[in-house]
Write a structure and sequence with these properties.
This protein is α/β, with parallel strands linked by helices. The chain has eight helices and 14 strands. Helix content is about 30%, strand content about 30%. A seven-stranded mixed β-sheet has the order 10-9-8-11-12-14-13, sandwiched between helices. The protein starts with a strand and ends with a strand.
């Protein structure tokens, strides 16, 4: 197994993340080097990943460092240690399939169990952008509004769509451009015994289904593009994948184009997630 590690300025993190997700069926690791630098690492068999030179030559990001290393033969077990369960808002318990369910939080609150197979697609609940979306879904459910249709744009592993279905949204539709993500989301939905519709779609060109709630865990350029293409204003929209200084731009765009007003803003480190409702 080969580990390919790439460092860049934190301001370039979204662009670098988008590039590396193309090569990361075995998972993606994020390491905070310092306040100004982030490192992403992806894993794959020899020959399955680009070389350090190839990546540096073809990246649109000014990379600070790129290096590869061999991973020990016991990686299959160590890889499991990397994927730890996550408790979200005292409501959701997101775990890999080799760990048992957990019925209560440390404070005794009942937990909804979500089992997500890592490594097939982005989004196991551990990354800040996914976790923030889950927190906003739970907040909406606690407001008594977890009902009606939901559309998950860029679903990855399907964790957000599956969580929404378990929290009460129906029907739930999940879209992703990557075939691996569509297959992973369908398999994870089956493992969680939830009925959601998962299909492949190009978010740049394909029509977007109308839905009462829209969740988009994407990067800033695609979020802005989707705002321009959104034909049906949702009752509630959750947008994540933003860096902390990018929230105001998207909020202004959605207010001007769709009359959506920011209702909640959650931050985890440098990552931001926003929730919107119609202003009137």
């Amino acid at each position: 197994m080969i580990r390919l590690a790439v460092r860049a300025a934190r301001a370039d993190a979204p662009a670098l993340l988008a590039e590396l997700l193309v090569f990361s069926p075995a998972g993606l690791e994020e390491v905070d080097i310092d306040d100004e630098t982030v490192e992403y690492a992806i894993y794959g068999a020899p020959g399955a990943l680009p070389s350090a030179a190839e990546l540096a030559a073809n990246s649109d990001v000014a990379l600070l460092a790129v290096h590869t290393s061999e991973v020990a033969d016991d990686w299959s077990e160590r890889w499991r240690e990397f994927h730890q369960p996550t408790v979200v808002s005292e409501r959701l318990y997101v775990r890999p399939p080799w760990l048992p369910p957990r019925r209560q939080s440390d404070r005794g609150a009942p937990l909804i169990d979500l089992v997500i197979e890592p490594g097939q697609a982005f989004g196991t609940g551990a990354h800040a952008t996914t976790r923030l979306c889950l927190e906003l879904l739970v907040a909406r459910e606690r407001d008594g509004a977890a009902h009606g249709s939901l559309l998950d744009l860029g679903c990855g592993s399907g964790v957000l769509a599956i969580a929404a279905a378990k929290l009460g949204w129906s029907p739930v539709t999940a879209l992703d451009h990557e075939a691996e993500s569509v297959a992973a989301a369908r398999a994870n939905a089956e493992a969680n015994a939830v009925a959601i519709t998962v299909r492949r779609a190009d978010l740049h060109t394909d029509a977007l289904d109308p839905a009462q709630t829209v969740v988009a865990n994407l990067l800033r350029p695609l979020l802005l593009e989707l705002s321009a293409r959104l034909e049906h204003r949702p009752r509630y929209l959750i947008a994540s994948g933003l860096l902390a200084d990018q929230g105001d731009e998207l909020a202004a765009e959605l207010a001007a184009r769709h009359g959506l007003q920011e209702r909640r803003r959650e931050r985890d480190g440098d990552w931001l997630a926003l929730a919107f409702e119609p202003a009137a």
